[in-house]
Automatic annotation (TrEMBL):
Transmembrane segments: none annotated. Composed of 13 different subunits. Subunits NuoCD, E, F, and G constitute the peripheral sector of the complex. Belongs to the complex I 51 kDa subunit family. Keywords: 4Fe-4S, Flavoprotein, FMN, Iron, Iron-sulfur, Metal-binding, NAD, Quinone, Translocase. One of its GO terms (molecular function) is NAD binding. It holds the Pfam family NADH_4Fe-4S. It comes from the Bacteria. SUPFAM superfamilies: Nqo1 FMN-binding domain-like, Nqo1 middle domain-like, Nqo1C-terminal domain-like. This is NADH-quinone oxidoreductase subunit F.
C-alpha cells in the first residue's frame, strides 16, 4: 500500500467536477490501473484531443485556461508551449516531465505518480500532441521506487492498449514514453540541469538563452513541465476552459485547483486538492485541524523550504501566487509547514542552509562559496559563538545571492527563508553573538594558557 495519501482524518468529498486531480483516488491507497481508469472516463480527453483537435487548438485551450506551472515557478503553461518552434521540419521534439521532487516538505507529485500513473500518462500524451513531440521522458527522483514501479507498469499497459507507440488510436500520431530515474540531486529540479543529467552529463544548469524550447535535450526543441501541471491537462481538454477557471475561489488570480498541504506540529498533517484562493487560515484550521495541543504557531512557510517564513497574522492571505507575494514571499509548491514556538530559528536555518549548500552544483561563485559561508556563520550563532557583524554579513549574503545575482534560481531560493527569518526573528540571531564585554570576561588566565 502507498505510504502517501490524501488525509482521511478530515475526509471531504472528491467529486469529479471539483477535484479533477484526485476524484479517482481509491480509499485503500492502491494504484488505479488502466481498466479502472478507463471505466472512470480515463483517456477520453486524449481520444478527443487526438481525433478532433489540432495541436494549435490544444495549446490555445491550455493557454486560455490560465494553467500555470505547479512546480513552484508558476510560469503560464500555454505560453511555454507556444515557445516551441513552428518549423515543421524540426521533427524531433521532446516532452520532459520534471518528477525530481526534492523540495523539502513537498510530496504532492509522489501521490499522483504512485496512485494515478495513468493520469500523468494521459496528460503527457495530450501535451505531446500539442507540442508535436515524438518522445517523452519522466525524469523521476531515484528514491521514488514505488513511483518508478507503478509508472513503468502503467506505460506498458498503455502501450498494450495502443495508447502509446505508433499511430495512437488511429490518429497518425506517434509518441514513445520512458521513465528515467535520476541519481538524486536537488539541482535537477532546474529544467536545464535536468536536461544535462538526462543526457548523461553533470547536472549543471545551462545559460539561457537559448531556451530549451529552441535548444533542449540533445540539441532539439524541448518542453519541461511538472507532474501536477501535466495532470491538469486532461481535465482542461475534457471539461473546457470556463469550467476549469470556475474551480478557483472568487478573486483568485490563479485558476483551477491545487494540491495543498500542511505539515509540522498540526493535528492532522495532510494533503488535499483545494481551489486556488482558499485562505491559508482555512487550510490550517479546517483541514489540518490547527496546531497540536500545547503548541502555538510561531511561523509558517507556504510552499517548501525555498519560500520565506510568514507570521500568524499572514494566515488570512489567500493561497495563490500574487496574494502570497503581497505578504512577502512565494507560494512555491503550495505545501505549507507550520513551526511552533519551541523551534529555534537559528538552528532551523543552519539545517536548511546545509541542505542547500550541499545541493549546489558549484558552477557559480556566489552559490558555491556564499552558501557554505552562511552555514559557517549560522553554526557559530547556534553555538553562541557568533561575532559582532555576523548578522550583517548574513544580510549581505542574502543580497549577493538574491535574484539576478547567480547563474540559476538555486541560491535565491536558498536565502529567501534566511532573509525572512532575519527580518522577523532577528533577536534569536542576536542571542548567539558573543559581546565584547562577555568575551573579555571569559578570556583564559595566564595559568590556564
Amino acid at each position: 500500500m502507498s505510504c502517501v495519501s490524501l488525509s482521511t482524518a478530515n475526509r471531504v468529498p472528491r467529486p469529479a467536477d471539483t477535484h479533477p486531480l484526485t476524484w479517482r483516488l481509491r480509499d485503500d491507497g492502491e494504484p488505479v490501473w488502466l481498466d479502472e481508469y478507463q471505466r472512470q472516463n480515463g483517456y477520453s480527453a486524449a481520444r478527443h484531443a487526438l481525433s478532433q483537435l489540432s495541436p494549435e487548438e490544444i495549446t490555445q485551450q491550455v493557454k486560455d485556461s490560465g494553467l500555470k506551472g505547479r512546480g513552484g515557478a508558476g510560469f503560464p503553461t500555454g505560453v511555454k508551449w507556444g515557445l516551441m518552434p513552428k518549423d515543421e521540419s524540426l521533427d524531433k521534439r521532446y516532452l520532459l516531465c520534471n518528477a525530481d521532487e526534492m523540495e523539502p516538505n513537498t510530496y504532492k507529485d509522489r501521490l499522483l505518480m504512485e496512485q494515478l500513473p495513468h493520469l500523468l500518462i494521459e496528460g503527457m500524451l495530450i501535451s505531446a500532441r500539442a507540442l508535436k513531440a515524438y518522445r517523452g521522458y519522466i525524469f523521476l527522483r531515484g528514491e521514488y521506487v514505488d513511483c518508478a514501479r507503478h509508472l513503468n507498469r502503467a506505460v506498458e499497459e498503455a502501450k498494450a492498449a495502443g495508447l502509446l507507440g505508433r499511430n495512437i488510436l488511429g490518429s497518425g500520431f506517434d509518441f514513445e514514453l520512458f521513465v528515467h530515474t535520476g541519481a538524486g540531486r536537488y539541482i535537477c529540479g532546474e529544467e536545464t540541469a535536468l536536461i544535462s543529467s538526462l543526457e548523461g552529463r553533470r547536472a549543471n544548469p545551462r545559460s539561457k538563452p537559448p531556451f530549451p524550447a529552441a535548444v533542449g535535450v540533445w540539441g532539439k526543441p524541448t518542453c519541461v513541465n511538472n507532474v501536477e501541471t501535466l495532470c491538469n491537462v486532461p481535465a482542461i481538454i475534457g471539461n473546457g476552459v470556463a469550467w476549469y477557471q470556475a474551480l478557483a475561489r472568487p478573486g483568485s488570480e490563479d485558476h483551477g485547483s491545487k494540491l495543498m498541504g500542511f505539515s509540522g506540529k498540526v493535528k492532522q498533517p495532510g494533503l488535499w486538492e483545494l481551489p486556488f484562493g482558499i485562505p491559508a487560515r482555512e487550510l490550517l484550521e479546517d483541514y489540518a485541524g490547527g496546531m497540536r495541543a500545547g503548541s502555538r504557531l510561531k511561523a509558517w512557510q507556504p510552499g517548501g523550504a525555498g519560500t520565506g517564513f510568514l507570521l500568524p497574522e499572514h494566515l488570512d492571505a489567500p493561497m495563490y501566487a500574487a496574494a502570497i507575494a503581497k505578504v512577502g514571499t512565494r507560494m512555491g509548491t503550495g505545501l505549507a509547514m507550520a513551526l511552533d514556538d519551541s523551534v529555534n530559528m537559528v538552528g532551523l536555518l543552519r539545517n536548511m542552509e546545509e541542505f542547500f549548500s550541499r545541493e549546489s552544483c558549484g558552477f557559480c561563485t556566489p552559490c558555491r562559496d556564499g552558501l557554505p559561508w552562511s552555514v559557517k556563520l549560522l553554526r557559530a550563532l547556534e553555538l553562541g559563538q557568533g561575532q559582532p557583524g555576523d548578522i550583517e554579513t548574513l544580510e549581505q549574503l542574502c543580497d549577493f545571492l538574491g535574484p539576478g545575482r547567480t547563474f540559476c534560481a538555486h541560491a535565491p531560493g536558498a536565502v529567501e527563508p534566511l532573509a525572512s527569518a532575519l527580518k522577523y526573528f532577528r533577536n534569536e540571531f542576536e542571542a548567539g553573538i558573543v559581546h565584547p564585554a562577555h568575551a573579555e570576561h571569559n578570556q583564559p588566565t595566564a595559568l590556564e594558557v
